[in-house]
Amino acid sequence: MKMLRFRSPSIRSLDQEVLCTIRLLDDSEISCSIQRDTKGQFLLDHVCNHYNLLERDYFGIRYVDPEKQRHWLEPNKPVVRQMKSAHQPYTMCFRLKFYPNEPMKIREELTRYLLYLQLKRDIYHGRLLCPFAEAAYLGACIIQAELGDYDPEEHPSDYIRDFKLFPKHSLKLERKIMEIHKNELRGQCTSFAELNMLQRAHSLETYGVDPHPCKVTLGGFQSDCEV
User: Fold this and answer.
1) Are residues 115 and 103 in contact, defined by beta-carbon separation less than 8 angstroms?
2) Where do the domains of the chain lie?
3) Residue 65 and residue 46 in contact, taking contact as beta carbons nearer than 8 Å
4) Residue 115: per-residue pLDDT
5) Is 103-202 the same fold as 3-96?
6) Which residues of 172-194 are buried (b: 16+ CB within 10 A; e: fewer)?
7) What's the pTM value of the predicted model, to 2 decimals?
8) 195: Cβ contacts below 8 Å, ≥ 6 apart
């Protein structure tokens, strides 16, 4: 992992520097040291420059507070002030913040790929809810994008079992995913399979929905829910 160090215009001693680790959408990480007055926009630009990403407005940096609540890092405020209750080194995540209304019109292939990675996460973590048929098709698109065409000499009978596609999935769903992968998606290149996944995911009601845990009190009783 390459470490980059950035300095603000004012000269500060090393004990004023703060280490930040940012987890990317493919679960890799990049790290950098910042000054205590460095603002959030600097970290977002750092990640976008790492990717050479042009369409930056869709993305943001997210962190989790000690109460396990997720927040977006505000670009115009110092990072340290926003992370004041967190332990160093700071750990944050680069995530899609604004889901495009028409993902098929995204200009850059890299942006589409990052959206694909975000939707894979949304499916696996149960944020993008799908009926059985849609789940099977989305899963098959992911398998096609990751493995290419089905090859009986390379792919055993349970070849998708190790893929983390959904929070829970049945043998019936696995079989349907393999059926679609073998018979309907043959010949699709990686980028086309990813594009098909985006198009189908975009049609689901929970596309772009980001649930947050909360507590509701009714009649003196408190219960957990998500909004």
Assistant:
1) yes
2) 3-96, 103-202
3) no
4) 98
5) no
6) ebbebbbebbbeebeebeeeebb
7) 0.85
8) 104, 112
Contact 180, 137 (CB under 8 A): yes
Whether 88 contacts 79, CB under 8 Å? no
**pLDDT tens, residue by residue, 85-125:** 777 889 999 999 999 999 988 999 999 999 999 999 999 99
Nearest-10 crossing angle of helices 109-124, 190-202: 60
Question: Does the structure show a pLDDT above 90 at 168?
Answer: no
pLDDT digits (tens, 9 = 90+) for 205-224: 999 987 655 454 444 444 44
* φ/ψ bin of 187: left (φ > 0), alpha (ψ from -120 to 50), beta (otherwise): left
Type of residue at 186:
R
Residue 226 has pLDDT above 60, yes or no: no
Question: Which residue in the block uniquely carries the two structure tokens 């679960």?
Answer: 27
CATH 1.20.80.10 fits 103-202, yes or no: yes
Tell me which fold the domain 3-96 belongs to.
Answer: Ubiquitin-like (UB roll) (3.10.20)
